[in-house]
Amino acid sequence: ALGDPGPEARRGYEAVLQAQEAALDVAQAGMTGEELDGAARNILEKADLDDYFSHGLGHGLGLQVHEWPRVSRTADDELPEGACVTIEPGVYVPEQNYGVRIEDIIVLRADGSENLTRSPKELMML
What we know:
alpha+beta, Creatine Amidinohydrolase, 3-stranded antiparallel β-sheet, two-stranded antiparallel sheet, 2 helices, globular
């Protein structure tokens, strides 16, 4: 953030971070995209921010930027082992003049997932 974003934006950032962590904690091959999306969406619902999460949690990566498998509330396909997908919850609150999205790339494994992203997650204020 450029300067202090204010208490509502900081709260939004923390909620998005918690939503991402919840999804990363449960992500594994064999679950559906809908189930994985729900793990993050439930956190944002508890923070009263789910109305501002207007897109799916993620998508596959490959030759195209957005590929199958989809990770969204309507994605009922099973997520396959070895698939690379994004985990990118976000909220966009125009009346508060802020938006937050945190994105990681993971590889789905039978017993969990491997996070390929190594960037810091703390809110940085410049």
